[in-house]
Amino acid sequence: MTPLLDVRDLRLHYETPRGPVRAVDGVSFEIGSPGEVVGIVGESGSGKTSMANALMRILPRNVARYDGEVLYDGEDLMALTDERFRKEVRWRTMAMVFQGAMSSLNPVLNVGRQVTERVLVESGASKREAYRKAEELLELVGLPRDIIKRYPHELSGGMKQRVVLAMALMMDPRILILDEPTSALDVSVQAQVMNLLKQLKRERGMAMLFITHDIALASDLCDRVVVAYGGEHVESGTLAEVLTAPKHPYTQKLIASIPRLHDPAQPEFIPGRPPDLVDPPSGCRFHPRCDFAFEPCDSDVPPWFEAGGAQHARCWLLGQSKGRG
Amino acid sequence: MAGLVELSDLVVRFHARTGLFRTVAIHAVDGVSLTIEAGETVALVGESGSGKTTLGRASLRLVRPASGSVRFDGRDITDAPERELKGFRRQAQAIFQDPYSSLNPYHTVREAVEEPLAVHGIGTAAERTDRARKALEDVQLRPADVFLPMYPHLLSGGQRQRVGIARALVLEPRYVVADEPVSMIDASSRAELLYLLRDLQATYGIAFLYVTHDIASARHFAGRIAVMYLGSIVEIGTPEAVVERPLHPYTKALIDAVPEPDPANRLRERPVVPGEVPSAADPPAGCPFHPRCPRFMAGRCELQRPTLREVEPGHYAACYLYEDET
Question: A-contacting residues of B 120-149, CB under 8 Å?
């Protein structure tokens, strides 16, 4: 069966005076079907936001390299012209909730104007249709009816985040990309928004790409998880596989670094710094910080090794058992 | 036993303009009593708008309370004029949240760390450099001589935050308020900085007020946890007691909302309290949590504010559910 979204060897490099920054450096993953949620977990500088921007083709001026395949229902979106991408894909096929989007609402326009704007401009819908749709979606995300006439300063953080979510849903996208959608919210409001996302997944069959630095939060929603490090992906699998039996030493450390509320075991940390993406380490990019680094790690880039089930990891430790060469 | 820092019935109000001539009083801290012993770490946990940052600032006398008192080392400093606070300012320091904005980009690490010494007129130039060097080594920026001439833009977020800590420590304080010191640091490095603070505390016997929204980190790095909601402390106790046997319905809701890495989470919806924290300009009467509380008792909770009571040894809650048991 053709996956809903199949990303292959996607690259996005930025030009800087020091040389190209390899923010997204050959990443591949897929979203199998509607209603599936894939989590991209990584720390700042791992390239996860750049990857989302690359999928939405929202690019800065200093792009040095942008290639790979993004197959949606088998069709390569990368082959489309910018014009066709804008008219047919962005917001219609894939919509995105940007990090910090709730603070970029226009303070002088009411909620109704902002939520309907894109539909009115892009699809030629009548004002009445657009407002009917907006009311339906604002209700879906759990906001009161009168919200449509209110202004951003009258809303709490949680309400603004719901408005932004309704905005992303206006063009009936099949895939929703969420970049740290709860990072500015308090935990109790975060839990409300996560419940809402679960409801979208369950009741509307929304496929999502959930980008976060917080693997515990990812466990709240995702069916599958991909772990990003230094512009690359290092591990992928079902949520249960990655969370309970992580294979890549980076994933293991990342999970061990979470302070557990109900477990007195002390959290660990990863010494050292994340890699410089202008001049990343040779071989495995994690090797300078890895406790298990051995002979091939600093020279040879590890391929994806199968780790049983749906789990894969790019670590030479998994190649050992099979014997090399 | 008298604590190092004693806050009693502290009230801090701000005046916010709502129009040309109108102002409203915001009760950021609304009657808080808290004692911090020498060498102890107390975590102040709460959501935005709970008043946790303001309470920390009031304990440093960076804001003047409207009523109540702040005592440090037995001395009442509530209304002490600034010129009498110089000794206190040497002994009480702060570590801030954002290591990117709290360091002057035009000052080297040496200038940043020596500055507090110069302000207090401590030592000769050579002695100040020696103390700065030692403070950098204490925060694991080694060798210190490599970091002394560097400017902040050359440092990672974690390294900048260490400079911030060194700046606070160079005066050898007895009390430090650390306000969200790791919330802007990568998850994999947070524990490293918190361990550093804990080691420094053990070495120098510093009392810490760890202000955070993250109750899980508070559990691992504090000796006591105080939970704040809308300007009040609603529960206080050891981390184990507060996390495993929470008493106040707000504490329970807060703990339920924390995502734990568990594959089973995905299949269930979290129990959540409805709504959001109300405005401190117009706080609810009675218990501040009563409009959102799943265990609201009409005729009681909305009338008078409950006070902290000791429900089990060392474990206090401000809730009428426990009124009859004591």
Answer: none
